[in-house]
Amino acid sequence: MSNTFGQYFRVTTFGESHGGMVGAVVDGCPSRLALDAADIQSQLDRRRPGQTSLTTQRQESDQVSIVSGLAGGRTLGTPITLLVRNADTRPQDYRRFDEVPRPSHADLTYRAKYGISADSGGGRASARETIGRVAAGAIAEKWLRTRWGLSIVAWVSAVGDIDAPEFEAAGLDRAAVDRFPVRCPDAGTAEAMQKTILAARDAGDSVGGLVTCECRGVPAGWGEPVFGKLHAMLAAAQMSIPAARSFEIGAGMAAARMHGSQHNDMYVVKDGRLGTATNRSGGIQGGISNGEPIVFRVAFKPTATIARPQRTAGYDGTTRDLTAAGRHDPCVVPRAVPVVEAMAALALADAARSAVAPDGLNEHEGTENV
């Protein structure tokens, strides 16, 4: 089972949805980086369930503990272990699925692969596994911000058939994104999205959506030809998120309907360097960052668990009427925002580690920049 992401900046997540705890081990973080639990907790709080009517009402504090890898508030360069204890667990809600696999869940496929099912909710396939990703991503992001001034911000750009209008994202920050529970920074669109999510919930259904992410300050030159292309690393990171269904960067699928004269990004001089007048490439050309913001979108399917009765079949082949138990988001995208940011940070940190010296510094720079 592949529970580890990254080659140089590596994170291994562990734990099940309704087990005792979840968490992550981060290996490859440079030494001497100032770090404490507060650096991680802020992102975990954004991912935490039960905060609004748009999310699952499971009540978890999701308080992180750092149990290894630090001394005097700085990283040692050794593995960093992060723990979050589960509190509001209800494994009994899932007993019925011992006989009936839930439609569009991983129950059937996990059993086919391992010959056994987790007795704690969705096990490793549950979105609760993303706690470890978010915690590890916060560490990666702090290193990227400290070392390069890099910033990452994601927002909800579509829910169902409600699309956010085009807007200038250069000044957008997380505070602006979090002004609305749905995490769309446009007030009118946010209200329409919220109504769509609540209508789906009240109908015992769910709805999908899109998350857009912009990574600013990424230096030119990150990414490896041919099979280590930066956009391929980002795609692998994002598509590993539960419920993710597609990834596109820059102009994305719209590029298939363009001519070269429409899609090409013309070079211009920006602050004494060559940059591009447009960014249809999404900040990556030839699989290598070009110094422009990296912009991508991730599509998420509707939550598979719904309250509406569904006609399906059990493991024994008999037809059943299934009404799912448990507490689940009617739309995953508002809480997916910090997960998308975390996976972007982990992919970029891995690319950064392959582009710089082993201690995270270019050879001509000193330790004060850690």
Overall pLDDT confidence? 90
Report Rg: 21 Å
Give the CATH topology: Chorismate synthase, AroC fold
The share of residues in helices is 25-40%
| Count of DSSP-assigned helices | 8
Q: If classified by CATH, what would the architecture be?
A: 4-Layer Sandwich
Measure the end-to-end span: 34 Å
Name of the level-1 CATH class:
Alpha Beta
Structural class: alpha+beta
**Multimerization status:** single chain
Low-confidence stretches: 358-369
- Give a count of the beta strands, DSSP E runs of length 2 or more: 18
Task: Write out the strand line-up for the largest beta sheet, numbering strands in chain order.
Answer: 1-2-3-7-4
* SSE series: EEEHEEEEHHEEHHEHEHEEEEEEEH
Taken together, the total number of domains comes to 1
CATH superfamily, by name, is Chorismate synthase AroC
Task: Set out the fold topology.
Layout (H helix, E strand, L loop, with lengths): L3 E2 L4 E6 L5 E7 L9 H11 L16 E5 L1 E2 L2 E2 L4 E6 L21 H8 L15 H19 L2 E9 L2 E2 L10 H4 L9 H16 L6 E8 L13 H10 L4 E6 L10 H4 L3 E4 L2 E4 L7 E2 L2 E2 L4 E7 L9 E4 L5 E4 L10 H23 L15
Antiparallel strand pairs: 1-2, 2-3, 3-7, 4-7, 5-6, 8-9, 8-10, 10-16, 11-16, 12-13, 14-15, 17-18
Helix pairs in contact: 1-3, 1-8, 3-8, 6-8
Can you tell me about this structure?
This protein has 370 residues and is of the alpha+beta class. The protein has a single domain (4-369), classed as Chorismate synthase, AroC fold (4-Layer Sandwich), CATH 3.60.150. 26% of the residues lie in helices and 22% in strands. It has eight helices and 18 strands. The protein has helices spanning 37-47, 107-114, 130-148, 174-177, 187-202, 230-239, 260-263, 333-355; strands at 4-5, 10-15, 21-27, 64-68, 70-71, 74-75, 80-85, 151-159, 162-163, 209-216, 244-249, 267-270, 273-276, 284-285, 288-289, 294-300, 310-313, 319-322. The strands form six sheets. Strands 1-2-3-7-4 form a five-stranded antiparallel sheet, covered by helices on one side. Strands 9-8-10-16-11 form a five-stranded antiparallel sheet. Strands 5-6 form a two-stranded antiparallel ribbon. Strand 1 and strand 2 (10-15) form a beta hairpin. Helix 1 packs antiparallel against helix 8 and helix 6 (230-239) runs antiparallel to helix 8. The longest helix is centred in the C-terminal third of the chain and has 23 residues, at 333-355. It is globular. The two termini are 34 Å apart. 43% of the residues are buried. Residues 358-369 have low confidence and may be disordered.
